[in-house]
Write a structure and sequence with these properties.
2 copies of one chain form a homodimer. By secondary structure, the first copy, chain A, is of the alpha/beta class. The first copy, chain A, has helices at 28-36, 54-62, 111-114, 126-135, 148-153, 155-163, 172-179, 184-192, 233-247, 255-272, 279-283, 286-300, and strands at residues 2-6, 10-16, 19-26, 41-49, 65-73, 79-85, 92-98, 118-121, 141-144, 167-171, 198-202, 208-212, 215-219. Chain A contains 12 helices and 13 strands.
Chain lengths: 306, 306
């Protein structure tokens, strides 16, 4: 039981109505790994520059994340994202992106990373995702995220990458954009026709929907009175979702396991947004996760009609 | 057990990506009544012009809706709304509104309408809502809807109207606008401080959230592959929600009844959007409602963690 994640390891500068932070630890692979570590052994793959502090690797390492495939590039700069949110925090406004060491990233997975049962391809250039997927031939369940940029600029590569995976986790608007189908249920079916048998539509504060050939399942987001920074919530969702599935030890999870995985994804995403960056998920406990899972059940359960 | 609804009885001209219809039967009170009639005796109050065909009253009457408080104004024109939807059907674009007989509407409720246990004040001018509320002194559970127009132009009247009711059903964006609080959970608490003990935030295709002093409950929208016209879905939701509560025969429904009411609201709203105007809800059967209620349970249920 092990999970490999490839994606950005980054510095994020973020401003929200609730504050501002400069060059925090962030990136899709980092948010994902910190969520998935509660369920399975996580190996993180990606490049950093020599501006990346040892303390950040240490933070991951101390929480059980295997960082031996993090590649430090001499003279390189770590991926940097700057953005802000207005009152509607469902929408991120990007102010700056500097690829840094990602511009020349040539992924080389160790044997341990190649053989992990579950693989998550975080949001990076689709050709990079395909090369990683080709190396990780030991994985039984491969999943992928992406973004509007790649749909607009490298659609053919992205469709090929999607054809290589079992599971896709996208924002709902991106599923519609990719398939040019405004109805989400029809759009999800169009994605399944590209290859994946599991499609998850992430809807920000509104929750998430799971589609398989057998049907669908939907959860609202966990309601919170304090939302400080939504950056990384989608990756924390993916970490909870895929981490739980890896813990089940099967390449073909049944409907009950998929539903519980959706609930764990929702729970981890809800912790993510409570504080800036990785602050909350880096410190959350297993007991808090179990409590919130039960609270989410309580928040959504209703009885048969009397 | 009876329910009085006051609101628009209208002609709607609607264009969506799936077709176009001219001067269909519509209006908040009509959509509400056609949904609520499955659960209780519904009395509809509102004015129509002499352009309003007898067949429309007959359609309501045949479905058990009491139309004796529908006032026909000689020489008047029935309320008219024209609008369209783009690919994102969560957003209605208004092209024309003609108040017609609503400009001089002076509500006079019959004794039967005044004594109904449940009262729904559909989206009309807040001072009109207050006058109706003052007349309906027999109601044990009064609820109210409104819209951004009244928040912007007659906020004080609207806040006074809200202070007179037990339950508020608004779009989530309108709850935020009314309270100037971007966080929905905090905004709902601010609404409760204005008077209502039950607050429902409607979120279009994303579902709805229920807030009480005891906590909250959230449901996603029912997923559909065919959504043709969302006009009136919020009123169908309110009809299913309040109709079910009236059927319980108590002024103070408990948490289980409120949750089931949320599910029935979701079910009736989902039928509403499947066809243009009132076509689907006017023809739906009790069996179809029960089936979809169970399907919604199946779509949202997940087990405790193993």
């Amino acid at each position: 039981m092990a999970l490999t994640v490839v994606g950005s390891i980054a510095f994020d500068s973020v401003r929200t109505p609730f504050g501002e932070r400069d060059r925090m630890l962030g990136g899709s692979a980092v948010h994902f790994a910190l969520a998935a570590r509660f369920f399975t052994q996580v190996r993180i793959v990606g490049p950093v520059g020599d501006d990346f502090e040892e303390e950040h690797l240490e933070l991951l390492h101390q929480r059980g994340v295997d960082t031996s495939d993090v590649e430090r590039v001499d003279g390189g700069q770590t991926f940097f994202w700057q953005g802000h949110y207005e009152a509607d925090m469902n929408l991120a406004h990007t102010d700056d992106t500097q690829l840094g060491v990602f511009a020349d990233f040539d992924p080389k997975l160790s044997e341990a990373s190649r053989n992990a049962e579950v693989l998550f391809l975080g949001n990076i250039q689709p050709d990079l995702q395909r090369r990683v997927r080709a190396q990780a031939d030991g994985s039984r369940l491969a999943a992928l995220d992406s973004m509007n940029l790649w749909i607009e600029t490298t659609r053919d590569s992205l469709v090929a990458a999607i054809g290589d995976v079992d599971c896709l986790l996208f924002n709902d608007s991106e599923i519609r954009m990719l398939t040019e189908e405004p109805n989400l249920a029809r759009a999800a079916r169009a994605v399944m026709d590209m290859g994946p048998r599991i499609v998850v539509a992430k809807r920000g504060e509104y929750g998430a929907v799971l589609f398989t050939r057998e049907g669908f399942f939907a959860l609202p987001g966990f309601l919170l009175e304090d939302v400080r920074d939504p950056t990384g919530a989608g990756d924390s969702f993916a970490g909870g979702f895929l981490g739980y599935l890896d813990m089940q030890g099967t390449a073909d999870p049944g409907p009950d396991a998929l539903r519980r995985a959706m609930a764990y994804g929702t729970v981890l995403a809800s912790f993510n947004v409570e504080e800036f960056g990785t602050d909350r998920v880096a410190g959350v406990t297993e007991d808090e996760i179990s409590e919130r899972y039960e609270a989410l059940r309580g928040m959504t359960h209703f009885e048969a009609s009397s």
